[in-house]
Fold:
Amino acid sequence: MIAAPERSGPCAAAAGPLASRGSRPLSAGPARAIMARRGSSPELFRLSWRRGDLKFVDRARITVRSGKGGAGCVSFRREKYIPRGGPDGGDGGRGGDVVITAGDQRETLLRYRFNQRFAARNGKPGEGRNRTGESASGLVLKVPPGTAVLDAASGGLLADLARPGDSYTACRGGRGGQGNARFASGGMRAPRFAQPGGDCEEKEIVLELRLTADAALVGYPNVGKSSLVSRLSAATPKIADYPFTTLSPVLGAVRVDEDSSYVLADLPGLIDGASEGLGLGHEFLRHVSRARALVHLLDPTRLDPENPLRDYEAIRGEIRRHDPSMLEKPALLALGKMDLPEGPAALEALRRSHPGLRVLPFSSVTGEGLDSLRYAVWEEVKRLREREAATLEARDAKRSREEAATAARRGAPGKTPGKSPAAASATVTASGRAAGKTPAKAAGENPALPPRRAAPDKPAAKAAGEAPARRPGKAAAKAAGEAPAR
Structure:
C-alpha cells in the first residue's frame, strides 16, 4: 500500500480538503504502474483523477481466462444388502465462458483501464451416486456499443460489437470430465479411474472503442469544430484559441424537430502524417471509421487563394492512407468563421475555383448559416439511415425465404431428409413398383402353392346362429369310412 506524503508550503493550501485525506492508502497495483509511467507522485495522481483526465478511455488491454472443467468422480455404490453396487461416479461440471457483450450505457472503457485480468469460475467436480458437478456460469463483460475486439498479439479483428446486444465468446470453458460410471462395461465392471476436466483458455485482447455517430466533424486543429458542436447541440466541449484543445471525442445530439435528431461527433484535430501516428492521428482515424457521413471544416484564415481546397485534399489523403474504404463515405464541405474579414473572400475564392462545388458557410459566433448546415447534415443522415434500413430489411427477407425453403424441403412428401434427390427418386420409384404387385405378393405368400384357407370367424358364426366349424373327430371319421385327420 502507498500512503500519500504530507504536503507543506504553498501547495498545502492549494490542496485544501485533499491534504486532510492524504493518509488514505492508495492501491499499489495499477496505481503504481500508472504513476511510474507518468512519473508522478501519489498526490498528483489523486489530483489528476479528480480533474477527470482519465474520464474518457477508448482503448484497454485486458487478459481473460475461462474456467476449467470439473474432474470426474471415482466412486462405488456401498449400501446394505447390495454387495456389488458397481461404479456410481458422476461427471464434472463445465467451466464458465468469457463473453463480451455490447450493452454498457457508459461511453468509456474506464472500467478496464485498472481491472485488466478477468477469469471465469471453474466447474465443480463430480460426486458419488451419479451426481454431476455444478457447471459454472459464464463471465459477461459489458462494453459500450461500437467496441472492436482485437487480438493483442497479431492486431487482427476478432469481433466488431457495433450494436447493442452483439456478443463475442472470447474464451470457452473446459468440458467436464466423465466419472467412472461412464467406463463400466462387460469386460471392466469396476473401473477405478475417471476423466479429468478440460483445460481453460487464456487470451490477451485489446478493446478499442469506436464511437458510433451519424456525422463527424473533421479538419485541422483549431478550425472551429468544438464551437460548432456547442452551438448545434447541448454538448460542452473545451474551447480555446490554441491547437489540440479537443483531446478526446465529444458527442452531441443535434435536434432537428420534435421527432428527429442525429448524433454529431467532435473529433481531435488532424495534422499531416496522422496516418503514421503523428499527433492524435490514430485516435482521430479510429473514430472516423464509425461515422456515417463526414463534415469537412475549412478555416478561411488558412485558405490558399491559388488552391482553396488544399486542406480538404490533405485530410482526404490521410484518410486514404489509413483506410481507402472510408473515402466512400458521403462528405459535406463547410466553411466556418464567416464573421472574420477573411470569410467572404475565402468563400468567393472557393466558388470561383470550383463553380459546381457545394459549400456551406456558417459562423458559430453570430449564428449565421447554422440552420442551413443543421438541415443539410440531417438530409444526408436521413438518406443514409433509409438506405441502411432497406438493406437490413432485404437481408431479413432473404433469410426468411431461405428458412422457409429449408423447412419446405424437410417437410415435402416423398422426400427423405438427408438423402440426395437421386436417392429420394429411387425410393419413390421403388414404392410405386411395390404398389403394382399382386395381392399374393403383397401379402407375402408364395404364388406356387395353393392359397391358404381362411379360418372361420367364430364370433361372426355365433352371431348368425351357426356352430363353428370343427375338425371331425376319430369316431365320426370311422363311422363315415374316412381316414382320421392327422
